[in-house]
Amino acid sequence: MGYESLAEVGGMLGHGGIVVFDDTVNMAKQARFAMEFCAEESCGKCTPCRIGSTRGVEVIDRIVAGEEQAKNLELLEDLCEVMTDGSLCAMGGLTPLPVRSALKLFPADFGIKVEVK
């Protein structure tokens, strides 16, 4: 396993750490944690990271609650895109990776009743 081989399949090693979960872990909670961590640790310099991560937590909560899931999934994807493309540092830019991955691979953990793109 290396940086290049992970990049070929859309993965990233980051700072060299890997977190492994068993099948009892709720990935919606982990996605929320990623956004929450970013919101708490953000330096506040750039809006995509500072506001995007805070709103990301709120939107994930609404998705899990079943509130207007299609609309909120679209909003979360937009937030992730803005964070990825507009953050000044890697923390804000990379926080969306586990969120998008969890949505794509574990939609049931979010209680999603609509198709995830």
From TrEMBL:
Gene3D superfamilies recorded: NADH-ubiquinone oxidoreductase 51kDa subunit, iron-sulphur binding domain
Signal peptide coordinates: none
This protein's UniProt keywords: Iron, Iron-sulfur, Metal-binding
Pfam families, A to Z: NADH_4Fe-4S
Domain NADH-ubiquinone oxidoreductase 51kDa subunit iron-sulphur binding: 28-73
MF terms in GO: 4 iron, 4 sulfur cluster binding; FMN binding; metal ion binding; NADH dehydrogenase (ubiquinone) activity
Coiled coil: none
Protein name: Unannotated protein
